[in-house]
Structures are given as structure tokens and as C-alpha cells.
Amino acid sequence: MTGRLSHPETKLGRNRRLDAAFRYGVVGLLIWLTACCHVWAQQPVPAGWRKQTFDFGSTDLRGEILVPANADFQTVEIQPRQAGTAGNVTVVGKIAPSAAVPADVTIMALDLQYPAAALRVCLYEVGLIGLEVFSRSIADDLSSASVRSMRVKDGRFEQVAYSHCLTRGTKLLVFHFIATPAGTDEESAFATGGNIETFARTALDGLTFADGKPVSHWAGMTDVRLKLGSRTVALPVSPAWSIAINDFQGGIPAELNMVRKRDGKDAGLVWLGAFDAPAGFDIARDGETFLRDFIARQSPDFGSAKLLSSDSAPPPDGVEGTKNHFHFDIATKTGGEAGEVFATVTLSGDRLYTTAWWSPPVSGDGRAAFVARLPGMTAFDLARRAADRMMAAP
């Protein structure tokens, strides 16, 4: 069986988040968010808290975190990634709920072959435990992300959670703070959500690492320079990828092609391009045609491309224009599976920006398939962020 990848920007995913906001109440959401908003920075140790050292069994996973003075903080060492595998995950820390701890706290550590985008992992792990995401926050460089989620059954609010994920090179930490509301109504759920996020942020405000590096970072990546006009941005690229083409030297058109090989076979392609837009370009209709032409040129083995979704999205902050996400299923000319293509096309002024990722079929389902695709997801997300920065730069 081949695992199919879910796209966080598909119509289904976006509508679920919007539906959640309306179904669970915009007022309640604002109460939760307002209750927890403060500057994320190192603060003095608050009364009733203490600094707790931790060692998760790796030089880059040792440090300190804040916990309530009487909290029982239990840890184990990370299980290292086995050679020939894409990654491994270990539950490395637990704090049980108590009078001072309003949530069940679980810390997971991933040991990966290549650095990974924090939001992708956060969304996957939250979905794996059956929670529905309704709000997310992400760092500008994509190295950290926070997700707010809940479980609702038959109109009853059963669980609320705040999750925070940190990329530290080839390691990635996931902090889950999960609680059961005092009542099953909306007000109780959002009050509990605000409480656990305030608790989580206090704990994470005190998070430092013994290696002296930032809490989240892209160590192990190489910055690739992309120049468009007077704008220059750096695209972090992992060793999983080779740069086949980079003609972002200032002029239009410009393209970047990143390719990945595994066991001598094609294992992925990420394409970033900037072009002069044809007059009257329709983002949905012409964007699809544009991408179909791109897909047809990638391999002589590619057959039909079935459009699975085409959804409008807001342009990047500070950018005027239109934007669309596309998802294609690709067949071989003999009718087999050739993988999937995810793409984003943005029209801004007289410029067309596109980012696309081809992912070949991956055997199996579940976490192994997800981790195997993380290098592709990460490269695609970072390329999209680079495109956004080129569009928004003065």
C-alpha cells in the first residue's frame, strides 16, 4: 500500500480550521489567545517554579527548562536513528498533572536523517492522537511552531491541547500539553486552553540548551543565494538535496531546481520559479495549465495528471495579488503510480511565482511514510517561504 500525503493547505484542511473557529466560537478562541499572549523571551524564575536540568541522551538535547517546584519530571534517553532509516521517535519526558501542573505533559524527541520543518511534525503528531487543529503559530524561519487543538465529540469538549515543536538540526522536539476541561461546554474548554498555554509558555520561556545554540535552528543546512532584481534571500537546503539549476541571478525568468536521489533512483524534485505573467492570467485556470506543462516535462514516464484540489489562499503578508494551491496525482504511462505534485502559484502585479514539489510513491502508511517524506515537505515549505520573502521584499 502506498501512503498518501495530506496537504495542510488543501480546501479540506483549511475549511476544518475555519469550521472549528465558528463551531467552537470566535469569542472563545479570542479568550484563549488573549489569555496567553505575552512576549516569548527568557524571564526570571517565577514564584513556585524552579529550573530543571534535563539530558535526553544527546549533546544537543541537554539543557534546562522551568517546571513547578513540586513537579515530578521524568526523562529517558532518545533512541538513536538506525542506519538506513529516515528517523526515529522517542518519548523522552513526562510530567504528570497535579495541583501545580494543569496538563499532562509529554515530550517527544525525533532523531532524523535530515532537518525537518517544525510545523509539519506538530500537525502530524496532533492528528495522530485524534485532535483537531484550529490555530497555529510559526516562526519566520519555520524552525519552530505552535499548534492549538481539541477533541470534540457530539458537541462535548473532551480535550484541549497546546503543542510546541522545535527544530534543532537533525533533532526535533515536540512538547504536548493536554488537559480535560472542567466542563464539556465551550467556555470551559477555552478557559482550560488559555490556562495550559500560559503554563506551557512559562515552562518554555525557561528553555535553554547546553550547546549554547538558539532554542530552534537549522544547523546542518546550507544557504543557497537567490537574487531577484535588487532582492536577495537565502534558502536553507539540507544535504538530502542537490541543486541542479539555480539561475536566480537577478533577472526574469529565474528557476531553481532541487533534486533528490535515493538508492540511485529519483526521490523528489522541488521547483521554484519567477516569471513574467501573461496578460489576463487566471490563477486557477491558467495556473493549472502552467503546472500541467511543468509536470509533463519532468519525466518521459509520467502519464496523466489528475487534479485532486485547487484552492485559493491569501497572498503573503504585505503582498498584493492572488494565490492558489494545487494538488495532483500522477500516473505512469502504463497506469501505475508515479507520485504526487503539490504546488503554489502566486500572481503579484506582472510577476508569476511558483513553487512545486514532486514526491514519488512511498511504501506503507503511518509514521514511517510520514518521516520518509519529511525531507520533501521541508524543502517545499522552505522554498515557498523564500518565494514569499522575494515577493514581499522592498
What does this structure look like?
The protein has helices at residues 11-23, 26-36, 118-128, 186-205, 285-296, 366-392, and strands spanning 49-55, 62-68, 73-75, 87-95, 104-112, 132-138, 144-153, 156-168, 171-179, 208-209, 222-228, 231-237, 242-246, 249-250, 254-262, 265-276, 302-313, 322-332, 337-348, 351-359. It is of the alpha+beta class and 394 residues long. The chain crosses the membrane at residues 21-41.
Topology (elements, then pairings):
Elements: H1 11-23, H2 26-36, E1 49-55, E2 62-68, E3 73-75, E4 87-95, E5 104-112, H3 118-128, E6 132-138, E7 144-153, E8 156-168, E9 171-179, H4 186-205, E10 208-209, E11 222-228, E12 231-237, E13 242-246, E14 249-250, E15 254-262, E16 265-276, H5 285-296, E17 302-313, E18 322-332, E19 337-348, E20 351-359, H6 366-392
Parallel strand pairs: 11-14
Antiparallel strand pairs: 1-2, 2-10, 3-4, 4-5, 5-9, 6-7, 7-8, 8-9, 11-12, 13-15, 15-16, 16-20, 17-18, 18-19, 19-20
Helix pairs in contact: 2-4
Could you give a short description of this structure?
Keywords: Membrane, Plasmid, Transmembrane, Transmembrane helix. The protein is α+β, with helices and mostly antiparallel strands. The protein is built from 6 helices and 20 strands.
User: Fraction of residues in helices?
Assistant: 10-25%
Helix/strand-derived class? alpha+beta
Helix and strand element order: HHEEEEEHEEEEHEEEEEEEHEEEEH
Architecture of the largest domain, CATH level 2? 3-Layer(aba) Sandwich
CATH class of the largest domain: Alpha Beta
Number of helices: 6
Topology-level CATH name of the largest domain: Protein Transport Mog1p, Chain A
Number of domains: 2
> Span between N and C termini?
48 Å
Biggest sheet record? 7 strands, antiparallel
* CATH superfamily annotation of the largest domain: Mog1/PsbP, alpha/beta/alpha sandwich
- Secondary structure: number of strands: 20
User: Are there runs of 5+ residues with pLDDT below 50, and where?
Assistant: 1-24, 34-40
Mean pLDDT: 90
Question: Rg to the nearest angstrom?
Answer: 22 Å
Shape: globular
Query: What proportion of the residues form beta strands (DSSP E)?
Result: 35-45%
- Write out the strand line-up for the largest beta sheet, numbering strands in chain order: 3-4-5-9-8-7-6
Transmembrane segments: 21-41
Keywords: Membrane, Plasmid, Transmembrane, Transmembrane helix
